[in-house]
Specification:
The chain contains 5 helices and 5 strands, in the order H-E-H-E-H-E-H-E-E-H. The protein has 149 residues and is an alpha/beta fold.
């Protein structure tokens, strides 16, 4: 992810925030042990590799304007954790990018098939075209990246 942010987006030292898996990032084990047992050690490993990462942090407070100003990308644990706030902020024109793959993968946030994306009257084709433009730009920004081992 950090390599993609540098190579494809030109962010020299990306700031990554990692959302917790459980509500309130587990509340120190009171709401689940996964954040302390799995997510926190993974973040520490990223930090040991020189990556500017913090977390796990409560997902319910990561997406307000002041919080978003503190990081370049949020690593979320599951689909709705990331896409609900994004769709709330920019439903008709948001595009998501999957980082860390050896190829470019983008998708309009309302889904790839408009007929399966809820109410057609609420959708525009704007996100589809923005997805295509972003994919083209990212494809030329850096050569295919080989996943880190």
């Amino acid at each position: 992810m950090a390599r993609d942010l540098t190579a494809r987006f030109g962010i020299s030292r990306p700031r990554i925030v990692v959302a917790g898996l459980n509500p309130h990032a587990g509340e120190e084990g009171a709401l689940g042990e996964e954040d302390g047992a799995v997510v926190a050690p993974a973040v520490k490993r990223l930090q040991a590799e020189g990556i500017d990462a913090i977390g796990p942090l409560p997902a319910d407070s990561l997406f307000h304007e002041r919080a978003r100003a503190t990081y370049d990308v949020a690593l979320c644990m599951y689909h709705d954790q990331a896409l609900i706030p994004i769709k709330t902020l920019a439903f008709d024109h948001a595009v998501n990018v999957t980082l860390g793959l050896p190829f470019v993968r983008t998708s309009p946030d309302h889904g790839t098939r408009i007929r399966y994306s809820g109410n057609r009257r609420l959708l525009t084709h704007r996100a589809w075209w923005q997805r295509s433009a972003l994919a083209a730009r990212l494809s030329t920004a850096a050569p295919a990246l080989v996943p880190a081992k």
